[in-house]
Amino acid sequence: MMSRVLKLSLSVGAIMAIAPNNPVRTVVAFSVIGYLITYSVIPRVGPSFVKIGLKGRDLSKRPPNPELPETMGLVAATTYLFLMFGLIPFIFFKYLVSFGSLANDEVMSENYKTQYQSIKDNKLFPHNKLAEYLSGILCLQSTTLLGLLDDLFDIRWRHKFFLPAVASLPLLIVYYVDFSVTSIVIPSFVTDFPSGSYLLSVVNSFVKFSNHLVTSITGLSFRTLQTDYVVPDQIPKLIDLGIFYYVYMSAVSIFSPNSINILAGVNGLEVGQSVVLALIFLVNDFCYLLSNNISQAAHDSHLFSVIFVVPFLGVSLALLQYNWFPARVFVGDTYCYFSGMVFAIVGILGHFSKTLMLFLIPQVINFMYSVPQLFHIIPCPRHRLPRFNAEDGLMYPSFGNLEKPTWLSTSILSILDAFKFIKLEKDPKSGKIKRFSNMTIINLCLVWFGPMREDKLCLLLLAIQFIVGLCMIVFRHTVGPWLFGYDNLSWGVK
Amino acid sequence: MMSRVLKLSLSVGAIMAIAPNNPVRTVVAFSVIGYLITYSVIPRVGPSFVKIGLKGRDLSKRPPNPELPETMGLVAATTYLFLMFGLIPFIFFKYLVSFGSLANDEVMSENYKTQYQSIKDNKLFPHNKLAEYLSGILCLQSTTLLGLLDDLFDIRWRHKFFLPAVASLPLLIVYYVDFSVTSIVIPSFVTDFPSGSYLLSVVNSFVKFSNHLVTSITGLSFRTLQTDYVVPDQIPKLIDLGIFYYVYMSAVSIFSPNSINILAGVNGLEVGQSVVLALIFLVNDFCYLLSNNISQAAHDSHLFSVIFVVPFLGVSLALLQYNWFPARVFVGDTYCYFSGMVFAIVGILGHFSKTLMLFLIPQVINFMYSVPQLFHIIPCPRHRLPRFNAEDGLMYPSFGNLEKPTWLSTSILSILDAFKFIKLEKDPKSGKIKRFSNMTIINLCLVWFGPMREDKLCLLLLAIQFIVGLCMIVFRHTVGPWLFGYDNLSWGVK
């Protein structure tokens, strides 16, 4: 008890000492506080969660499997949200006023007067950034609330798939009111292509027609307001997607949380992949923040990303320690939605949602690989977790039974088998497929690399995620510029 | 099913038809939608709530008392929150752009260009109002989340009393960043009093010292930025409360939800008093909105109040129909906190929190009357609900036993008895107090007006609330100006 209080006060002291005029250091200090709070609260509230029925047994362990608390992601999410509230004055006021606690009264008064004048002139105070920040937190809080409802009421799959879209409403609405950039950069090979400009004009007319339709029904218009997300001397060709940009953002906010929710079932994997993704995001952000030659808008949006991701990393690391093999708590859908939405928000408000998709490639592959089972083209058992073998304590791929083979299911399985993307068990006499390894990349890893212990499996998947992420950062800034004819990150000195 | 869909589409149609350029009519239409959604969702989700243990028996009914779903306020609160998301583009964009769905493309373009220019010049777009609005919703969502946690985990009294303060953090922080008005009007009798100005300077020095202390610890300064909440030609004497203004706002946000939570236990009372309070707020707001001679700031803050209160009225009326005698659902602490916080937010952001306290006088009296029992000066049984008599079906006052009379408890009870504010049962021989009616205004009503049926009792309490509210509006604009030397509402034509 005493040591925790000491730790907490030390970290609060650390904020006060290192905070002045550096948002990055402030969020690091907040992140440490978030880690300490989450780490100390989880063991205290666990029994209460078990008591009201938020509990589950770990099936990948030798008996007796005690009941473990579920939905512990709620603690991490709530801590995160209240930290983000606390950050507001430091991010949006202090650095502009820029007085330290050590400055004397006169200096402070002077600073204050300048600041006040700037506020009155509407020059300095970033109200629009504040609205974005608030809408981001609002979206995360909606996600947490809906995730909790899902964990409590076991909402049906086809309903819960769309919950993140509902939760992302405040984000999209504030984006509409406040930001309204709905144009995207067109790859240069499209404009260079002979019929490219013709194609573009067709798309343009279609967008214009759809916008007009929506406007005449709702009275809300869709037009791009600003396009300052490019370096001035490298203006690329843009296309305005209008209403479809909102459909796209909504799709991103649906995909990101659900894809993390699908890649789950191994101790530590949900939180682990989120931590790895957070690290990848930070590497990418600091590529921008440490560069000398980027636009103010790009700088702001990556600083924004750092502000959201660093405290997330803090609370997630605390949760990971309890969720890592052998797990003492489960994180629940609440955490998966929450974590996926953090990335979606950063990608959307930072206007780099395509880069976000690159980082989520393992999740994208896992989703696409799962599609035949998710849509019941191929039979899908209730659980697709790897099978635990109590004798050697290792995880083996789990199998589904192909009881009623159809033309479609047989051919999908055969094609996957030809490329070694699945393990099939065939009837020795007739040669018909009887069983197939469940279609998740978790099972695929076990098929490829053989049975292994749960924590080794998790580490392997996390390593893949990390390597893919790093490769995608390189890809983004080498192949990307070649495709699009420009990059918003340049490393040369001006 | 069909008729509901029809109703819904009709009301959506109604919005589109009547909405242009009138925020009041838009919120009325949203309120209707909120009513319909809440009304149709509650019976559908009730069984799921019972299933996960959110249930209770109504003890004031004849057996068999079936288990009724608890925490149904969650449906109302969630509906309200998503309606408030949907309102954003209508409140913050449409009326400024001010194009209707019927306007032709050229007019729209023209409007749009003007609007765009204004946004670029940072003249027109109310980003600061948007931040306030978002922080209000954020605060309400935090309240709902914490209220749900309270209903789920049965948080201890001394902890849950402060939950609203935690939930109100985003509000206070945005108020600090964005608004920072920390001065209040001083009653003119204080300044007219000979030693008044001396007293003020003492208070001023104390505030300055405390501000300095907080600033030197946290680096955040507390100074009033703007004082445009007064009519220019009637500038009254102001005093800057600095940091104490935030303590005060925090106290308001703690008191308002808890006071509604305490005045409860009769079918329909929690929702009923909220509906009555909402009506009183609206009467007060329209006094301002229909007046010709008020400042822009006063107009804006009362319009803000209407925008928050009208949709709240819609969802509450739907909930009231299920919660009214004989109740089919209970509302839970979630609703009490949520509803109290709506009023606190409106009062705080509208800068009329003192008027809010006037409207809450029945709750204030109930709280003060309850204090001796809440702080265990006088014994407090687990439940202080009125007692149901199954024979005649009426409610009777409930009694507590004075087992260990102390000097303090006996004298409190005797004084209350002298003014007929309590019913005592004494030992016929010794004359010692044995039992006393529990100290809530609900029991007091039963003591004064005799036993009555539950719905009559509720109606009586609501009628008192309504009459007190109306009197307070009159008081506010007659005695208030006399005390403070000015009123921000004047009914004369300029």
Overview of the molecule:
Two copies of one chain form a homodimer. Mean pLDDT of chain A is 83; it is low at 94-104, 118-125 and 225-233. Helix content of chain A is 65%, strand content 6%. The first copy, chain A, has three domains: 4-181 and 242-359 and 457-484, no CATH class; 183-240; 373-452, no CATH class. The N and C termini of chain A lie far apart (53 Å). With 494 residues, chain A is mainly α. In chain A, strand 8 and strand 9 (433-437) form a beta hairpin.
Shape of chain A: globular
Q: In which order are the strands of the major sheet of chain A placed?
A: 7-9-8
Low-confidence stretches of chain A: 94-104, 118-125, 225-233
Q: How many domains is the backbone of chain A divided into?
A: 3
Largest interface: A-B, 61 and 61 residues
Seen as an oligomer or otherwise, the chain set is: homodimer
Q: Helix proportion of residues of chain A, in percent?
A: 55-70%
What do the pLDDT scores of chain A average to? 83
N to C succession of SSEs of chain A: HHEEHHHHHHEHHEHHHHHHEEEHEEHH
Structural class of chain A: mainly alpha
Strand content of chain A: 5-15%
Distance between the termini of chain A: 53 Å
Write down how many β-strands of chain A occur, each being a DSSP E stretch of 2 or more residues: 9
Number of helices of chain A: 19
Task: Summarize the main sheet of chain A.
Answer: 3 strands, antiparallel
* Rg of chain A: 25 Å
Pathway (chains A, B): Protein modification; protein glycosylation
EC number (chains A, B): 2.7.8.15
Organism (chains A, B): Candida theae
InterPro entries (chains A, B): Glycosyl_transferase_4, GPT
